[in-house]
Amino acid sequence: MSPVQHPAIQPFDGPSVCLFCGSSEAAHADYIQVARDFGAAMATRSWRLVYGGGGVGLMGASARAAHEAGGKVLGIMPNFLRSRERLFDDVETLVVDTMHERKILMYDQSDAFVVAPGGVGTLEEVVELLSWKRLDLHAKPVIFLNTHGFWATFFALMEHSVAEGMTPPSFLQAWDVCDTVEEAADLLARRFSEAASTRALKYDQR
Asked: Radius of gyration (Cα) for the chain, nearest Å?
């Protein structure tokens, strides 16, 4: 499914990757560095970084790194969080009315999703995204950046849900896990290449 273009958003001709991550300034320095490395990797690959629009925590670190490396960045921020998450207006940023609108636009504007360490907001975003995938509403790649095993307990919860008969075993294939930014970027490149090949094959068969 192609990204939906919002009239207020500048067109971008290339892959876009949404980063879900924490906004806490108290995050461990290693997590902040991973966010910086991820932002820089997006710029190096000429991919657009789509994120929550904030200038704090991992969010701010990733956006600044991508911007400083010459990359394209799109932030989407609900109006009521402008002061709390400190809008980072050095990059293209769209201010919307609600969290729901933010998440829909982040989804529409992205071809894949990476989930870095974060708090309850990050967890809420990725659970909704995986729920949509469980319902076959999308097939976009979802990659957990599992720095220092941050997401291990979440994976254990999902496995417990499967073991208790609440979730089908196939759901455990709905995401990939990478330990480093380099692994995640390489996997994204393969997924984008596979998607391009599939589109070309469908076109040839018309």
From this structure: 17
* Spatial strand order in the sheet of 176-178: 92-96, 73-78, 48-51, 16-20, 112-115, 142-145, 176-178
Instruction: Determine contact, residues 91/50, Cβ cutoff 8 Å.
Output: no
Q: Are the C-beta atoms of residues 156 and 162 closer than 8 Å to each other?
A: no
Q: Give per-residue pLDDT as tens, 186-199.
A: 999 999 999 887 66
pTM above 0.90, yes or no: yes
List pLDDT tens digits, range 161-182.
999 999 999 999 999 999 999 9
Amino acid (1-letter code) at residue 150: F
Phi/psi for 56 (5° steps) reads -120, 165
At 73 the three-state DSSP class reads strand
Residue 42: closest CA among 20, 61, 65, 22:
65
